[in-house]
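User: New here, please read:
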Amino acid sequence: MKDGPRYHGGVIEVIEFTDPACSWAWGTEPKLRLLRWRYGDRFAWRLVLGGLIGDMNKRVENFDPVRMGPHQSKYWREAYKYTGMSYPVKLEWMLWSTEPAGRAVKAAEMQSDEAGARVLRRMRESIFIYGRPADSTERILEAVRGIDGLDEQRFAEDFAGESSEKAFREDWEETRRPNEYVINLRGDRPGIGNVKESEGHKRFAFPTVIFRGSDGEATVPGWCEFAEYERAMETALSGSTAAPRPDPTPEEYFGTWPTATQKELDMLCEGDAPDAAATYDWGEGTFYLTGAEAKARGI
């Protein structure tokens, strides 16, 4: 147990600005999983899906999703050099937009926050593990099959409805109201989270995580060290990092999350996957799945 002030309760509001296709957000997954594992009972966590790509047809003349695949794969490999998280070695097509995947997360959140988080993970895996981005209704419905706790029929109806579009549009607009901290942030290091501009709008970088509590507010933008998240917690609520939950064993990890990259296992468990875990070769490494998840994904 840590020395120093004990945590005596209270809630830290956490706002995570993210996008399924952002390689820096994908690379930050191990850190945010560790953060939620250690301190999850202290957070009220909200996902904001920011819309990284509106329409590639408006960005690239004569956009060809298949032809662009190898080029985008090389681009994402640059982030992999820093994050250690997988990139799509064989990207079969470049997604035309990230907005359908963002809407999918909002549709799932109509059932529960946990369902939303699991759909977001599947959207990311469709890109960075399997190289087959879920960027259409058909591909999204295929990608969410077998998610534990997700009513797939209701999801399909909510995804097609106006409510998910409205929820996503509210997230899109919130993302384009960056705070003074990121507007004034300077530097040129890889993954820095200063204010970005896309399609004529200034926005938060992905990921950006804001912590708010009774003692203050702190913003952790872009690619950052894990300690920065803990410092932000202390700014929001003094003493909130005391007595963290012990890090999980590999078995505990897979009892919480159905998939893992090697980077996630190294950061959270410092151990190997259980013998019962199924494996998938993503091209330059191994991806691990529970038996149920592997069956749902046809592996």
